[in-house]
Design a protein that fits this description.
This protein has about 270 residues and is of the alpha/beta class. It has helices at about 15-25, 40-50, 55-65, 75-85, 105-110, 140-155, 165-175, 175-195, 200-220, 225-230, 240-250, 250-270, and strands at about 5-10, 30-35, 50-55, 65-70, 95, 115-120, 130-135, 155-160. It is about 55% helix and about 15% strand. Bound molecules: nicotinamide-adenine-dinucleotide (NAD).
Length: about 270
């Protein structure tokens, strides 16, 4: 991948995950800088990965080819207004990983026709197993799209969407999704503990069942998920009885409603 000079504004979990993936995949650490007001997180990233650390957002952004906006959405307007005073974005690529801040809003904040890619990663990026959705408006060149995709491939898989609304759909299907699985696993662990297993054993049972199921899905790319389910469900057997409870309680409808709620919230934030 091309090695452009890249600056992260914000040194939180997600910036840290991307920096870790980049450095581990061979991106030169001396081409990466990370900015945040407090030293705690950025200095930890600097110590761990050898990247530059600074409190000077504007100075770092000015010197960079690529600016990754990785602050919380509610901080974004203030951070961008301060950057805009000093930095000419016309020759830079801007990447935003924030939910709920639209391309139109970034153009208002940083300049018309901004060269921007919106990225929606998820927390498994922290362990290199992320799923990121990417959207770029038409002014973004193919070279910049390729660069953005390669960057996020350092922390997992990527999926391009053709419309900005698609980013909200990625939020529902992947961005927020780890928490759906955590909730499910939490409920299973609690029931396993009620059955008498220790917390540790209950967690191991659930964790291994989940990662085993996920590995089986990954190893069977041509098998529909419904087939994998049917393969382990004999009529009248134990799995059949368990799944009947889920279908009687309309699990698919619940999942659909939950994903729609995530989309509605993302739309409200824009
Ligand atoms: P975080 O709270 O861990 O990190 C935010 C960082 O911004 C901190 O390092 C903070 O010091 C820094 N910051 C605050 N004010 C600043 C300023 N004025 N200038 C520079 N830095 C400043 O948050 P996070 O979980 O890493 O999330 C960052 C972004 O990623 C958010 O916009 C969030 O929507 C997005 N995102 C997060 C996830 C997730 O699962 N964590 C998933 C997808 C997208």
């Amino acid at each position: 991948m091309q090695h452009r000079k890249i600056c992260f504004i914000g040194a939180g979990n997600m910036a840290g995950a991307i920096i870790s993936g980049l450095v581990e995949s061979g991106y030169p650490a001396n081409m990466i800088s990370v900015c945040a007001p407090s030293t705690t997180h950025r200095d930890a990233l600097a110590a761990k990965y050898g990247v530059q650390s600074s409190s000077d957002n504007n100075g770092c952004a000015k010197a960079a080819d690529v600016v990754v906006l990785s602050v919380k959405p509610q901080m974004m307007a203030d951070v961008c207004k301060a950057l805009q005073k000093d930095v000419d974005f016309s020759d830079k690529l801007v990447l935003s990983i924030a939910a709920g801040v639209s391309v139109a809003r970034f153009c208002e904040l940083l300049g018309d026709n901004l060269n921007i890619v919106r990225i929606m990663p998820n927390t498994p990026s922290l362990v290199g197993q992320g799923m990121s959705g990417l959207y770029a408006p038409e002014q973004v060149s193919q070279a910049d799209r390729d660069y953005s995709g390669e960057l996020m491939t350092a922390v997992g898989k990527i999926c391009w969407v053709d419309t900005e609304e698609g980013i909200n759909h990625v939020i529902a299907a992947a961005g927020s999704a780890p928490a759906y699985f955590f909730l499910f696993m939490e409920a299973m662990q609690a029931e396993a503990q009620r059955l008498g297993f220790s917390a540790e054993t209950a967690r191991m049972l659930v964790e291994q069942a989940a990662s085993g199921a996920s590995a089986l899905v990954a190893a069977s790319p041509d098998t529909p998920l419904s087939q994998l389910r049917e393969n382990v469900t004999s009529k009248g057997g134990t799995t059949f009885e368990a799944l009947k409870v889920f279908t009687d309680r309309q699990l698919p409808e619940i999942v659909s409603e939950a994903m729609q709620a995530a989309i509605t919230r993302a739309q409200e934030m824009e």
